[in-house]
Amino acid sequence: MAWSIADVARMSGVTSRTLRHYDEIGLLPPARIGSNGHRYYEEADLLRLQQILLMRELDVGLREIRAVLESRIDQVAVLREHHRRLLVERDRLEMLARTVGRTIAALEEDRDNNDMVKINRPENLFEGFEPSRPRIDAEVRERWPQAWEQSQQAVEKMTAEDAEQYQREVTAHLIRMAEFMAAGTPVADVAVQAAVDAQYRFVCRYWSPNAAAFKGMGQYFADDPQSRANLDKIADGLADYQRDAMVCYADARLS
To answer: For the chain, which residues make up each domain, given as ranges?
Structure first.
């Protein structure tokens, strides 16, 4: 049985654009291309895509993924290792969920009491985070390798204090964007764009994306299932709002 690229995109949550990119770089060629030019995938291709997505979840680069898939390493052994690492990540995400739940409860209690927010143990805000290195999309590594290398050099110089500050600033930015969205503020609003400008300058500490790269980052937030879920847990629709604000900024300031 064969499935069209649209079927595979629907089943996997991977966009057709990304599937075509995987074909172009030789990572996931389709089983055949029909006379109409459409790509068709068979069961073996779906299994290969599952492995690609598993390794992407574990932040493995596309070049490294291709090397693994083209090697003679036992696939079951590879999957066992992926499974082990996913269980570790599951436990970390459960801890993050508890962290966010405590924060929500504290904020709601203070709001009900008309009090200023009081944080008795600020270290609890960051339980479960992995601040050792910022997560940067693997596609960035493939499409802008020089920028990726620049970012890695900056990350390697980060101290524990730098990493904690990084997490604080990311969290603060997402909260600001969620507040703008909840208030119905258009993404082109001066205040929203000022927040995105601060985000761009923050990203530039690690690498300097051009207009296309910055838009690509925003699109990744909306397209990648895990990234979308993480942002939408903060506020439903935040992934799309963040993407649209970044596109607006890139068109106005980076083009």
So the answer is: 3-70, 72-128, 130-255
Instruction: List pLDDT tens digits, range 43-96.
Output: 989 988 988 888 787 667 787 778 777 775 666 766 776 677 777 778 777 877
- Distance, CA of 226 to CA of 95 (rounded, Å): 16
Phi, psi for residue 65 in degrees, rounded to 5: -60, -45
The torsion of the CA quartet 51, 57, 59, 61, rounded to 10 degrees, works out to 40
Distance CA 97, CA 89 (A): 12
Q: Which residue has the tokens 């909260």?
A: 175
123-149, pLDDT tens digit by residue?
454 455 454 344 444 555 666 566 666
The structure's pTM equals 0.46
Count of CA atoms in the C-beta half-sphere (13 A) of 209: 26
Is there a common fold for 3-70 and 130-255? no
30-49: b or e for each residue (b if 16 or more CB lie within 10 Å)? beeeeeeeebbbeeebeebb
The answer to whether the CB of 253 falls within 8 A of the CB of 197 is yes
The torsion defined by the Cα of 166, 252, 193 and 250, in degrees rounded to 10, comes to -30
Q: Does domain 130-255 have CATH number 1.10.490.50?
A: yes
CATH architecture of the domain with residue range 3-70: Orthogonal Bundle (1.10)
